[in-house]
Design goal:
Elements: H1 13-19, H2 24-30, H3 33-53, E1 60-64, H4 66-76, E2 85-89, H5 97-100, E3 106-109, H6 119-136, E4 149-154, H7 159-171, E5 175-180, H8 184-194, E6 200-203, H9 208-214, H10 227-231, E7 234-237, E8 244-247, E9 262-266, E10 269-273, H11 276-290, E11 297-302, H12 319-333, E12 339-342, H13 349-374
Parallel strand pairs: 1-2, 2-3, 4-5, 4-6, 6-7, 7-11, 11-12
Antiparallel strand pairs: 8-10, 9-10
Helix pairs in contact: 1-3, 3-4, 7-13, 11-12
């Protein structure tokens, strides 16, 4: 026997299932819960996407156990950055990063299960409702006047370079958005690039490519370094931290890598030094991804090291391995993408200055061409 809701429903279960190309009757007959949850998540996402296009969503809130959380988080993928999103869930103690993806979703622990109301669930539902009402009325009233918005990627091993670049760009009147190249950061940046959020990208830390190749914990997936090329956004790219792959604690490093050069960056992070063969593959992949760009792109190579620990005397300092990476990048770029070698370490202020001047030169040239087209 079905329970009747005591509130208005705009899109009932049949409509949600139909949006995903299924019949609710068929889903119930098949008794395949996993498939039903996936179908309803896809249907809800299509409905939410349509509502977003019609500008009918100010905020979103959902709740549930495993199935309800999946459906809510899947639907929220259609809601862009800045529109408040809360999910009251029994699953907040689990790793939901795959479902959250690059969205700014707030997880609200339910403490108890969603099986009926009690004094705890009533309180937390009220608090979640109050939270979504409060944050949905928050707006950025600050009038930010900037020449443009620039995305930049960083790691602890490239922080000195990124800090210098950010200061230089801000001094020139640009708003800068740093993304930690830890997998989630790279995916988030790629998503926002596709949504038209940035005018240019200073991709200093492309280390996520190495994690994708060697199955490290900081992979951003196969589409990393493709959004700017597809969107026609200006790029300056550096093979920053391609000397390393990230794993968890030492005991979690895959057995076939145990004999490699390993370094404990922290108790929770073990870095593995990439070798010549991996660097050749990474060089090819980096160029392959950005070579499809319809906008200008330039690669800069810091010849004295591509990470903090890849400096003379550092634990990952292997000039011959870096040279394999650099030579592969140059060989694959040929005449299509300019490659500039800079006699400096990646964290040398000199390199940061050249990076920023190179990017701003591209921006100015693009603006000049646009101005000419208006005449």
């Amino acid at each position: 026997m079905e329970t009747q809701a005591s509130f208005k429903i705009d899109f009932d279960a049949e409509v949600v299932a139909r949006e995903a190309g299924f019949s609710l009757t068929d889903l119930r007959r098949d008794r395949d819960r996993g498939n039903a949850v996936a179908v309803m998540g896809n249907g809800a996402a299509k409905i939410v996407g349509g509502l977003m296009q019609d500008d009918k969503i100010k905020a979103a809130i959902g709740m549930g156990g495993g199935g309800g959380t999946y459906i809510a988080l899947t639907a929220m993928q259609e809601i862009p950055l800045g529109v408040p999103k809360i999910c009251l869930s029994t699953m907040t103690g689990k790793d939901l990063s795959g479902l959250i993806g690059s969205r700014d979703i707030i997880l609200f622990p339910s403490i108890v299960d969603m099986a009926g109301l009690n004094s705890i669930s009533r309180l937390l539902i009220k608090q979640a409702a109050a939270a979504i009402c409060c944050i949905s009325n928050v707006t950025d009233k600050e009038d930010t006047i900037a020449k443009g918005r620039i995305a930049i990627t960083m790691f602890g091993n490239t922080s000195a370079c990124v800090d210098k670049c950010m200061n230089l760009l801000k001094r020139e009147g640009y708003e800068v958005f740093p993304f930690h190249a830890n997998g989630i950061g790279g995916r988030t940046m790629e998503t926002l690039i596709r949504e038209g959020y940035f005018d240019a990208v200073l991709d200093i830390t492309t280390t996520e490519l190495a994690d994708e190749l060697c199955r490290g914990i900081c992979s951003a997936g196969p589409h990393r370094l493709t959004a700017a090329a597809e969107a026609g956004i200006l790029q300056v790219v550096v093979p920053g931290c391609l000397d390393m792959v990230n794993f968890g604690r030492l005991e979690t490093v895959p057995s076939h890598y145990k004999s490699r050069d390993l370094y404990s960056w922290s108790p929770e992070v073990t870095l593995m030094r990439t070798n010549k063969e991996e660097n050749k593959i990474l060089g090819e992949r980096l160029v392959q991804k950005i070579s499809k760009s319809t906008a200008p792109v330039i690669i800069l190579l810091p010849t004295k090291g591509i990470s903090q620990i890849d400096a003379e005397g550092g634990v990952f300092y292997r000039p011959e391995v870096d040279r394999a990476l650099f030579d592969t990048i140059k060989a694959n770029s040929k005449d299509t993408i300019p490659v500039i070698e800079v006699d400096a370490h990646i964290n040398d202020p000199k390199f940061a200055t050249i990076l920023v001047s190179t990017l701003l030169d591209l921006v100015e040239r693009k603006q000049s061409q646009y101005n000419k087209s208006l005449k």
